[in-house]
Each structure stands twice: as structure tokens, then as C-alpha cells.
Design goal:
By secondary structure, this protein is an alpha/beta fold. The chain has helices at residues 5-23, 51-62, 135-163, 165-170, and strands at 40-45, 66-67, 76-91, 97-112, 116-129, 193-201. It has one domain: 2-Layer Sandwich (Double Stranded RNA Binding Domain), CATH 3.30.160. The protein has 4 helices and 6 strands; from the N terminus they run H-E-H-E-E-E-E-H-H-E. Residues 1-23 form the signal peptide.
Length: 210
């Protein structure tokens, strides 16, 4: 088999690029570039057996993040709460709700030893038609909708882990450190809308994991 100068050059460039990426410690975990400092973390929750907790754990493992037992020197994600709310968008002539908006709100706290703590609130919103003649089918549809919204919220948590790279490099959870990475009003698709709000605490103000 003959190799032309062009093919040899291409192979050399590919090999050189792979070597440089490996040498600089770049590792893409799953779909997101999770910092190596967060490759191993603990997960605590308001309910360790809830559906949302299981979804978050599964999403983290899918992105090659090892989940370990809580420890003082291990980063932690604490799921504070999860809840849904509904509001009416339009009415039928009979004054019954025709279109509703369902919002899933999730609050969680990320603690990185020696760096700080930051609390995030992520909301996923979806609108749907409420037909009173198909109440049973709508109930099943809503359950499926809520499950899909939980998956989107869990994905947003993993995405936020990748955005913490700037904070880790700066050695602080100050919002200025990763302001370029923040997107407080991001649309995941034309159907769902995801918003993330963040606050932070310095290491001296940390509280024990609930």
C-alpha cells in the first residue's frame, strides 16, 4: 500500500493533535467538557429515592462522572427541592382552562472544597392543551411530560458542571469568574424553556450538606 505525501501529512497532524490534547489534560466527558476536578463527586438529596434523584445520578454517570460517598474533600451536589406549578394561559367559553403552562422548578447546591458554594435554581416550562373530555389521557400525558422535564433539568445540571471550569481556575465561586459561561435565559428547544438562576457563598459561609 502506497502512502502519498498528503496522506502522511494528514496522519501526522492527527497524531500531533491527539498528543497535544492528551498532554494538556483535555478530556471530554460525555456531551460536555466536565472539569477533571468534578470527575468524582457525591450526590445528596431532599429524597435519595425520588425519581429526579435517580435521573440526575444516571445523567452524571452517562457523562463519566463517578459518584462516591460524601466527604469533606469531595465536591458535592445537593438537590434541595423539586416542585411543579401550573398556570392558565387561555380559557374555553365555559371558563374552563383551555391551555395551561406547566413549570418544573429545581433548586440545587454545588460545593467545591476550598473554593466555595453556589446555589442554582433551574426551571423548565412547557405549555399544553387541557381537554376535559380526555382527562385520563391528559393525566398520563402530564406524567410523561413531567418525566421529560426532569430529564431536561438533569441535563442542565450537568451542563452547569461544565460551566464551573472558570470558577475552579479562578479559585472562587464569584459570579464574575464564570459570567461568560452563564446563560440565565436559555431555550432548550421550541417546546421547552429552561432558565437558570445562581447565587454563591464563600467557603467561610458554607453550611453542612443537608
Amino acid at each position: 500500500m502506497r502512502f502519498t505525501c498528503s496522506s502522511i501529512l494528514k496522519l501526522s497532524l492527527i497524531f500531533l493533535s491527539a498528543t497535544l490534547l492528551s498532554a494538556c489534560g483535555f478530556h471530554l466527558r460525555g456531551d460536555y467538557d466536565i472539569p477533571d476536578e468534578l470527575s468524582k463527586l457525591s450526590v445528596t438529596s431532599y429524597d435519595q429515592y425520588s425519581s429526579f434523584t435517580r435521573i440526575v445520578n444516571r445523567q452524571l454517570r452517562m457523562n463519566e462522572i463517578e459518584i462516591v460517598q460524601p466527604a469533606d474533600n469531595v465536591p458535592n451536589i445537593h438537590l434541595i427541592k423539586e416542585g411543579t406549578s401550573t398556570r392558565t394561559l387561555s380559557l374555553y367559553q365555559t371558563t374552563r382552562a383551555a391551555e395551561k403552562e406547566l413549570t418544573l422548578l429545581v433548586s440545587y447546591r454545588v460545593t467545591i472544597p476550598q473554593i466555595g458554594t453556589k446555589t442554582f435554581s433551574t426551571s423548565v416550562t412547557r405549555s399544553y392543551l387541557d381537554n376535559p373530555l380526555t382527562a385520563l389521557a391528559k393525566s398520563v400525558e402530564r406524567d410523561m411530560m413531567e418525566d421529560e422535564m426532569r430529564k431536561l433539568a438533569a441535563t442542565q445540571i450537568v451542563r452547569q458542571m461544565a460551566r464551573l471550569k472558570a470558577s475552579i481556575q479562578a479559585g472562587t465561586m464569584d459570579e464574575k469568574a464564570d459570567s461568560k459561561e452563564s446563560d440565565k435565559a436559555q431555550k432548550a428547544s421550541e417546546t421547552y424553556q429552561i432558565d437558570t438562576i445562581e447565587t454563591h457563598l464563600e467557603p467561610s459561609a458554607q453550611t453542612k450538606t443537608e
